Amino acid sequence: MFRKIRKVKNEICLEKIKEILEKSPRGVLALNGEDDYPYAFPLNFVYDEENQSIYFHGTKTGYKIDCIEKNPKACFTVILEDGLADDGWSKITSSVVAYGLVEEITDRDFARDAMINLAKKYYPNVDLVHENMEAGFKNTKMLAFHISYMTGKKVNER
Question: Is residue 19 included in any domain, yes or no?
């Protein structure tokens, strides 16, 4: 159902894929939009290895929510720059592409935990996370992207 990487020499192992998902500051979620146009947008996220899911938040209504309700199939992509190649100028990058389904997290306790873990990734300390939690949580919808398939690759951008 999902295509394999064509250049297998660039494929990376599952452990490296997980590392990229942990380290990447932002990802791009692509949904099926209106009139068959794709709708892709950058977002903050946190990866949950145990549940093979990516969690992110959004407003309770809007175009993103409309697209998900119409068709929950999605693609999520992250890119991580690994530094310069031995030539000193060309960049080495790693990327992950994942396919899966997006759904709202309806269990309030689980949603709260997911939001705290997301905030911990971006806030400088836990005190700020808890300080901003209550106001943000009641106005936010937590969403889960459940990974069905993912692959990764490392390339010299030369």
Answer: yes
